[in-house]
Specification:
The chain is an alpha+beta fold. The protein folds into two domains: 136 residues, Jelly Rolls (Sandwich); 46 residues. The protein is 51% helix and 23% strand. It has a four-stranded antiparallel β-sheet. The longest helix is centred in the last third of the chain and has 25 residues. The model has no long low-confidence stretch (mean pLDDT 91).
Length: 194
């Protein structure tokens, strides 16, 4: 399981250098978990219990709208932290489902252990704030893209930024994430392939 932790250390060290004491704390507080594909890791209607680091695999957040449609709000692959951020941090009931689309290797930390780590660690607060800011910026950009770019421009940008997701994630999830219909996405894919 050491490769799980090394992947997390490498991810954090793109932001700041981790002292050995903080690495030891991470090894103690983050638990390795294997989750099989098509598993709802945290269902809507509950307070999210864990902050997940995706070592490998593909995950999404989605909710069910008033017309009983699944709306994908976040779609990602490892390495990356992944949860229903607002609800996890504030310990409120989430309307989102956390879904492992593929088999996923994760490191998970509970909300209580986040507090323990914050007291022990010299760097956790700094990297947590920077990672959260990065996530919020990505979400802001996605919302801006939906408002200002055409469907084709959104799809082309997605292909550039996340090419592996297109190979491993069903089209309906990608279409929902991009704010277009699956039929329109299929047409766009045919157009970019030719």
């Amino acid at each position: 399981m050491e490769h799980y932790y090394q992947r997390l250390f490498d991810y954090i060290e793109e932001i700041l250098l981790l002292p050995e004491t903080d690495k030891a704390s991470i090894r103690q507080l983050f638990k390795p978990v294997f989750v099989p594909r098509d598993t709802i890791l945290e269902p809507a209607g509950q307070v999210p219990r864990y902050h997940n680091f995706i070592v490998s695999g593909h995950m999404r957040n989605f909710y069910i709208d008033h017309e009983d449609r699944e709306i994908t709000t976040d779609l990602n692959e490892g390495p990356r932290f992944f949860t229903s951020y607002f609800h996890f941090m504030n310990q409120t009931v989430s309307h989102e489902n956390l879904h492992c689309i593929t088999d996923c290797e994760l490191l998970r930390i509970s909300r209580d252990d986040v507090e323990v780590g914050a007291r022990r660690s010299t760097t956790q607060k700094d990297y947590t704030i920077q990672i959260l800011q990065k996530h919020l910026e990505e979400e802001k950009n996605r919302i801006n893209d939906i408002a200002t770019l055409t469907a084709e421009e959104r799809y082309r940008k997605f292909l550039r930024q996340k090419p592996a997701i297109v190979q491993h994630v069903p089209l309906q999830y990608i279409a929902s994430y991009l704010g277009i219909t699956q039929r329109h996405l299929s047409r766009l894919r045919r157009g970019t392939a030719s």
